[in-house]
Amino acid sequence: MLVQVERSSQGPGDAAPVTVMTSVGTVPAFWGGNPEAAAGEHYIEWELDEEFRWGFNCSPVAVEEPRLWQNERGVFCRGRLGLTGFEGAQPFAHLELAGAMIDLGHIDGLPPGMDGEWIEINLSPEKIKIYPYQL
Hints:
The chain has 135 residues and is mainly β. The chain has strands spanning 2-7, 16-22, 25-31, 40-48, 52-53, 58-60, 67-71, 74-84, 92-97, 100-105, 107-108, 118-123, 128-132. The chain is 0% helix and 56% strand. The strands form three sheets. Strands 6, 7, 8, 9, 10 and 12 form a six-stranded antiparallel beta sheet that branches. The model has no long low-confidence stretch (mean pLDDT 93).
């Protein structure tokens, strides 16, 4: 996903806090690349360090439109749910968001028949890390 990244401040450790501006919204994250190169336009990969549980931080939505935003409850990502896996095993989930595929791992308590449905996930800003990559 092509995004604009603005450096927020100098953070502890190797991950700099940044603001990620996309075509579907703006959210905070931590930069996983070279901190000196964080600001600017980048193709990125998202890493969401969260355990997703249906009905707690992952739920269905009626609005079928990708969106990223933040409020006092955290960061929200809305997209289409995709599921892959072997028959009989718990499927791996990903969120299709404006041309990007964001790995969610397993979603505990996911009801059957959710593949292709629009969902919304909620997580803390400190759980979001982005990494630059070259096409």
